[in-house]
Amino acid sequence: MTLKGKRILLGLTGGIAAFKAAELVRSLAKAGCDVRVVMSEAACRFITPVTMQALSGQRVWTDLWDPGVPDNMAHIELSRDRDLIVVAPASADFMAKVARGLADDLLSTLVLARRCALLLAPAMNVEMWNNPATRRNVKRLRGDGVAIAGPAAGDQACGETGMGRMLEAREIVAEVEAFFQPRLLAGRHVLITAGPTVEPIDPVRAITNASSGKMGYAVARAANEAGASVTLVSGPTALEAPAGVRRISVRTAREMFDAVVKSVNDADVFVSVAAVADYRVVNPSAQKIKRGARKAMTLELTENPDILAHVAGLKKPPFCVGFAAESEKLAAHARQKRRRKGIPLLAANLAQEALGADDNALTLFDDAGEHSLGRSSKLEQARKLVAHIAAMLAKKKKR
């Protein structure tokens, strides 16, 4: 487990989103974290310290002048053994304090006196989030190296709708996991294709390849966690782009090809995960073809551009990674595809075991042979793939 043994200080400030902190502390503890909770006076008006103590299994701290702390220095002692401070919810007032270096209670004081990193999960009314003062504070905080997770858009407790909702507990846990990933691709631009392409027959019918997009989106998240600037060219999926990833939405193979060509010039790494349809209809109908209008119908098909082969064939190509979903003879077909495409690395899996699933069993093929990654979640597989890519890039740089 990525977070097993990590020591987190979870801070709560005043806001209705404090109720989400109960699920957050439970999730962090379940992931193997040691969670110490510090609450502001305002936070105690929304959720009780007793609740947080029961869920964390530890005493909850609220008082800057607590006599139970040696030398009355809770603001020093409580954070010194922590790997990360997470404040969720982080109110507009608290963010303003941190941006200006103010310290008038336990939580703000220990944040100012911290030695570890700080992650804030904002929660506030949409107008408060959009206020120029808050925008200036966010910019200053990011400039000071503070990580900002969220907020999200949606319905708010006040009855208004817009940006300002605190992320859900699972999303904040994902941000915490991302924080602890090694920055193996820092300074790199990674271009990724994901999902299926859809080739129209008429306005309501199409040819496509089966793909949920989960593996490609996992690779995008893992590359972003590793410090890369990530561009994700995605066919139609029901997935949300990972935080911090730039997504270009496309539908057809030709649209995907055009988007890749426009983005590839400054890419250091290209990962072709998308299940691109090999063929498209030559003359799709502009109107819906009515049932019964023809007893039989013949479709004339033509090949779609080979995106990976095009990129690999550039005069100065990025480091290219292909994907192969096979139904049999995995190793033989994977090796053959890697040679045919002329790429340094190919990841392969059995399609019947991976399509639509949340886990996967990838095998990597390169000049050194084949490397099994075992079976695990697609995100864990993606992180292992990113680490392998980074290692190959490092070796290439030394030559």
How would you describe this structure to a colleague?
This protein is of the alpha/beta class and 399 residues long. It folds into two domains: 173 residues, Flavin prenyltransferase-like (Rossmann fold, 3-Layer(aba) Sandwich); 210 residues, Rossmann fold (3-Layer(aba) Sandwich). The protein is 33% helix and 26% strand. The protein contains 14 helices and 19 strands. The strands form five sheets. It has an eight-stranded mixed β-sheet, with helices on both faces. A five-stranded parallel β-sheet has the order 2-1-3-4-5, sandwiched between helices. It has a two-stranded antiparallel sheet with strand order 6-7. β6 and β7 form a beta hairpin. α1 runs parallel beside α2, α1 packs across α8 and α4 packs across α7. The model has no long low-confidence stretch (mean pLDDT 87).
As a percent range, the share of helical residues equals: 25-40%
The percentage of residues in β strands lies in 25-35%
Strand arrangement, largest sheet?
12-11-8-13-16-17-18-19
The beta-strand count equals 19
Largest sheet properties: 8 strands, mixed
Mean pLDDT: 87
What's the N-to-C terminus distance? Answer: 35 Å
- Class by alpha and beta content: alpha/beta
Low-confidence stretches: none
Corresponding CATH superfamily of the largest domain: CoaB-like
CATH class of the largest domain: Alpha Beta
SS element count, helices:
14
Number of domains: 2
Question: For the CA atoms, what is the radius of gyration?
Answer: 25 Å
And the CATH topology of the largest domain? Answer: Rossmann fold
Give the second-level CATH assignment, the architecture of the largest domain: 3-Layer(aba) Sandwich
User: Rough shape?
Assistant: elongated
